[in-house]
Design brief:
The structure holds three protein chains of three kinds. By secondary structure, chain A is of the alpha/beta class. Chain A contains five helices and eleven strands, in the order H-H-E-H-E-H-E-E-E-E-E-H-E-E-E-E. In chain B, the strands form two sheets. A six-stranded parallel beta sheet of chain B has the order 1-10-7-4-2-3, sandwiched between helices. In chain B, strands 8-5-6-9 form a four-stranded mixed beta sheet. In chain B, strand 5 (217-219) and strand 6 form a beta hairpin. Classes of the chains: A alpha/beta, B alpha/beta, C alpha/beta. The interface between A and B is large, with 78 and 99 residues. Chain A: Pfam families: LUD_dom. Chain A: This is LUD domain-containing protein.
Amino acid sequence: MTEPGARAAILARVRSALRDRPSATVARDYRRAGTRGRGDLDRFAEMLRDYRALVRITDDVPAAIGDRGFIAAPGCPPEWGGDRRQHTVAELDRVDGVITACAVAIADTGTIVLDHDAPDQGARALTLVPDHHIVVVRADQIVPGVPDAVAALAGVRTQTWISGPSATSDIELERVEGVHGPRTLEVIIDIR
Amino acid sequence: MTFIGMPRGTGNLTGAPFPEAASEALDNAQLRRNLAKATGTIRAKRAAVVDELPDWAALRAAGAAIKDDVLANLDTYLLRFEAALTERGSTVHWARDAEEATRIVTELVTATGAREVIKVKSMATAEIGLNEALAAAGVAAVETDLAELIVQLGHDRPSHILVPAIHRNRAEIREIFAEGMGATDLTDDPRVLAEAARAHLRRKFLTVDVAVSGANFAIAETGGLVVVESEGNGRMCLTLPRTLISVVGIEKIIPAWQDLEVFLQLLPRSSTGERMNPYTSVWTGPTEGQTSHVVLVDNGRTATLADPDGRAALRCIRCSACLNSCPVYERTGGHAYGSTYPGPIGAVLSPQLTGIDRNPTLPYASSLCGVCYDVCPVAIDIPSMLVHLRGRAPKPRAEAAAMRAAAWAMSDHRRWRRLLRAGRLGRALGRRPMLPPPLSAWTRARDLPEPPRQTFRDWWDTR
Amino acid sequence: MRVALFVTCLVDGLFPDVGKATVTLLERLGHEVVVPPRQTCCGQMHINTGYAAQAAPIVANHVEAFADADVVVVPSGSCAGSIRHQHAEVAREHGRPGLADAATAVAARTYELSEFLVDVLGVTDVGAYFPHRVTYHPTCHSLRVLGVGERPLRLLRAVRGIDLVELPGAETCCGFGGTFALKNADTSTAMLADKMSAVTTTGAKVLTAGDSSCLMHIGGGLARLRSGVRTLHLAEILAAT
């Protein structure tokens, strides 16, 4: 609970600190939203493999998913299969894996963005607690760079940006995959 | 302009004088090996992924400018952020200093009845001493970041912004885990150690009902918070507990969602040397039925903002590139800086947050080699800022007298020439004389140059 | 060209051979060297130790000493860096806008030795002969404040008979840092130890650099170790025939 006067005091301090009226102009001379190209899919796949994610490029997503007894986000296409019922966190801790779609994917960084307000991507726990995450990326969802992804997303949505499986560099700054998040990230790129 | 009267920061921001603490650290050969290996690895990775981006210089300039815009209009952006968050249903709190911030968080936690909270690694909560305050109220704070866990289980202090246990090697970590977790089947393999942390924390994630986080970015336009992490412990803390309390320094604001396109390129490449970190969470207000509190913390930031030559330190996005590149940090480690913020950025930030009188030695903890400025993704000119802060630091009386005398001689060529001629008498001293402190510090490890028979200008006059 | 030499306080008092070598080199290249008699020091030690107020009269003296010079050459990256990036600021901060303008004008005509040779004179082969194994340490201020880049190496590569070997970790600070070497002596010594072991692994007999201050620090350590490696300023190698 804010101490009475704290808010006003901090704002007054800020205004007093800025008595010299500094100003700043932001020049955005960096690469803005880029041009999509043929190389994007290959670069995306290469970056993912660099993170040691499993990458499969296919025109038959249901076959690639197969029947593994996974659960799926409720809004996924029916042909992807998977159990669509709502699960508690304790139940999620016992399932083998989860299938979702994504909102956008970034070639330069091998990043997949989940929009948790979209029913085919599900609430956050769904893709966090199970140890194996299958995410289906349509080829046309792959954008070249980070600015393209930011432009394609609405900032008010709840999001998780995922770049490879859970990892840590906390021991001698050596990267190790697999800590608390899903240890297996499987990306199915749909080129249909 | 005078800054007297602007309240300063409190909390974990000071320690022993740097030279003394550094000497102690330098005696630890294991520490130096660990640091040299770790910082060497990360420097190479950072350089490789930064070189990949042809527009790095432009991104860096934009990152600096966006942060400067935030600082120049901080009141406007803070109010915008507060309004957006409040509209979404979060409660926004304001804390002038560490005491107020820890009191607010402690009250929020105890109101839920929880005796335990899980924590995402956060510099702000380390700065304000939150864990200590919670413990005093009977609440256990469980650190969930692997490195923070190593520090917590080892009853140690963090020594790095990004990798708080950088001073520990795998063998030491195995021992700490064996002791702290009661695990008996551990090896030195980082995979095995990471797996042990997963097993140790899993039940906490699934059962503890209150989490405390920081934030890497707070978006004024949307009220969004952003946490950048690797392991998934952040996602666990942000997602599973019913109450989420986020402690955010007032300088963490960025104006708009779009600005993330700059910082999500600058930060991962500068910090872990990755193209992108494994997980970035973005949320705006209470999510999926949670209760959400955001505590905005000043704690010396407005005092820092008041100095036009020092305020750029508030651009910092806590990437650690300056620590990893600094030849001083590499040898002394982070504990020597005595503050939550070690390394070059700590040497300019800590004295400004606390006031220079409480951190008088930190601005001198640098050879001014300039590599920190080169690698800073938001172009903080740390060397110039160090020099500026040295100007404000209290000076030893004998040093000040010597400096005044030298300046007197050096501002006139006749006096200077007489001094140099007198200096030739130093020839009698030999190359390893017994000199009084602080000059004896030189001759402990180095010979003195033998003063020449003739100064340059005497030679020149004879031509 | 008429070149005003700013010899620097350290070279004047402790390393006159570096000044003599600079004169020899510039004269051999056909230029007239003058040594403005009022010069003393650039004031960098005061500025960087937090005594900018005391440095202001030193800066004023320097600016007056070189006010009439067409071009100023300094055999030091660090001093050139201070003149270029600190002098005007010190003058401004101490309420002397006129001095700041004059300092900016002097700074614009001031060059570190390798910059002057390569950029102004357009030479890399200065006609030197130095038949020894040499390694080069790029000093921090020449590298990061001035950005001299490859210029000293281009000059060294053109020296006849030289066996120039690469210094591992060359761009890492040697630990001098002015009063840092005294105020944080133990850290400075630890950095020095690593620099010295890098130097000795090269098998070089001579370590060179563009700053006598860093060379005094590294050379003092190498002498204490009786390493057999001597330090020479870049100017001394370039002047050798």
